[in-house]
C-alpha cells in the first residue's frame, strides 16, 4: 500500500513538473543534465532530448557558439565558465537573472543538494522587468520635471540647492573649490510692463540660451527666481569665475532679442555677483549670501557689470 502511494505521489509530481510554467532541471554530481522539462530546454533553444545527457558546460557553450538561448556576457567562454564553476563550488545556493537572445528574462535559483545533485529552478519575469523598466523611466521623467524650470528648461531652485550641497561635500572631501555666479536681468519688470509677459518669457529663454553657450559641461545653470539665475562652476577659482561672468555679460549685451513678427529687437543687460566657496561656508546659503551682496552692489552702482566678493 505504501509503495502504491509513493508511486502515485511520484507520478503526480512528475506531471506537475511537466506542466508547470517554471523551468526545472537537475544535474548529477558531474554536472550532466539528468532531468529537465520543456521550459528549461527551451531556455537554451533545445528540445528536451537534445539537452538531456549533456553537461552544463556543453549546454552553455552551445548558447555561446550559436548566439541562441541564454545570453552570455563575455567574449571569452572558457574564462567565463571557469568563474561560474568556481562560484558554484563555493556556495550551495544562489539566485540570478538570465535573459535569452529572444528577450525573455528568468529569475533562476540554483541549489546543490546534500546528495550532490544540482537543481535549477527558473521563473519567467519578463513582464515584471518590463513593468519595472517603465516605472523607472516614469520616475526618471518625474524627477526631471521636479528639478526643471518649465519655461527655460534649465534646472530650478530645488535642484540648485541639492547640487550645491553635493558640491560643498565634494569640496570638503577632496579639498577643492567652486565658484558661484548670481545673475539678475536688469530692468526686467519694464520689459514685462511694456511688451507683455509673453515677451518677457521669450527674453528669459533667450538669455538662458546665451548663458548655456558660455558654460562647460560640468557647470550647472539654474533659474532660482523670476529673473534670477545661479551658476555653479566646479573646480573654478574666483578669478576664472569673474572672467566667465564677464564673458556671459558681454554676450548678453551683444545679443538682439526679437520681440515681434516685425523684426523688432531689444537689447538686454545683466548684473552678476561672483563669489568663491570658502572653507568656513557651512551651507550653500553662506556662499549665496556673498554672491547676493556682490549683486546688490552691482545694482547700486548702475547695473550691467560683474563684481567679485
Automatic annotation (TrEMBL):
- Top enzyme category: transferase
Q: List GO BP terms, alphabetically.
A: cell adhesion involved in single-species biofilm formation; negative regulation of bacterial-type flagellum-dependent cell motility
Q: What is its EC number?
A: 2.7.7.65
List the PROSITE patterns hit by this protein, alphabetically.
GGDEF
Q: Which domain of life is it from?
A: Bacteria
> Per the UniProt record, which residue ranges are transmembrane?
none
Q: Which residues form the GGDEF domain?
A: 176-309
Q: Name one GO cellular component term.
A: plasma membrane
Catalysed reaction equations from the record: 2 GTP = 3',3'-c-di-GMP + 2 diphosphate
One Gene Ontology molecular-function label: diguanylate cyclase activity
Q: Which cofactor does it need?
A: Mg(2+)
Query: Protein name, please?
Result: diguanylate cyclase
Amino acid at each position: 500500500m505504501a509503495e502504491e502511494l509513493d508511486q502515485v505521489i511520484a507520478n503526480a509530481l512528475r506531471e506537475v513538473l511537466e506542466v508547470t510554467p517554471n523551468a526545472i532541471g537537475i544535474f548529477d554530481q558531474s554536472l550532466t543534465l539528468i532531468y529537465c522539462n520543456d521550459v528549461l530546454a527551451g531556455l537554451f533553444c533545445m528540445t528536451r532530448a537534445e539537452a538531456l545527457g549533456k553537461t552544463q558546460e556543453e549546454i552553455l557553450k552551445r548558447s555561446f557558439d550559436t548566439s541562441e538561448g541564454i545570453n552570455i556576457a563575455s567574449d571569452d567562454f572558457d574564462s567565463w565558465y571557469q568563474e561560474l564553476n568556481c562560484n558554484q563550488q563555493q556556495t550551495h545556493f544562489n539566485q540570478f537573472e538570465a535573459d535569452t537572445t529572444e528577450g525573455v528574462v528568468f529569475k533562476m535559483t540554483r541549489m546543490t543538494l546534500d546528495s550532490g545533485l544540482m537543481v535549477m529552478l527558473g521563473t519567467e519575469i519578463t513582464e515584471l522587468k518590463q513593468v519595472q523598466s517603465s516605472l523607472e523611466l516614469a520616475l526618471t521623467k518625474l524627477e526631471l520635471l521636479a528639478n526643471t524650470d518649465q519655461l527655460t528648461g534649465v534646472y530650478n531652485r530645488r535642484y540648485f540647492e541639492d547640487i550645491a550641497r553635493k558640491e560643498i561635500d565634494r569640496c570638503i572631501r577632496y579639498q577643492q573649490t567652486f565658484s558661484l555666479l548670481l545673475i539678475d536681468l536688469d530692468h526686467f519688470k519694464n520689459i514685462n510692463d511694456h511688451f507683455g509677459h509673453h515677451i518677457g518669457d521669450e527674453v528669459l529663454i533667450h538669455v538662458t540660451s546665451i548663458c548655456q553657450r558660455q558654460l562647460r559641461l560640468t557647470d550647472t545653470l539654474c533659474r532660482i527666481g523670476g529673473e534670477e539665475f545661479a551658476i555653479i562652476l566646479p573646480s573654478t577659482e574666483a578669478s576664472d569665475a569673474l572672467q566667465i561672468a564677464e564673458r556671459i555679460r558681454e554676450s548678453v549685451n551683444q545679443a538682439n532679442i526679437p520681440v515681434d513678427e516685425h523684426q523688432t529687437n531689444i537689447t538686454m543687460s545683466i548684473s552678476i555677483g561672483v563669489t568663491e566657496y570658502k572653507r568656513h561656508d557651512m551651507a550653500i546659503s553662506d556662499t549665496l549670501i556673498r554672491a547676493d551682496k556682490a549683486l546688490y552692489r552691482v545694482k547700486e552702482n548702475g547695473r550691467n557689470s560683474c563684481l567679485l566678493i
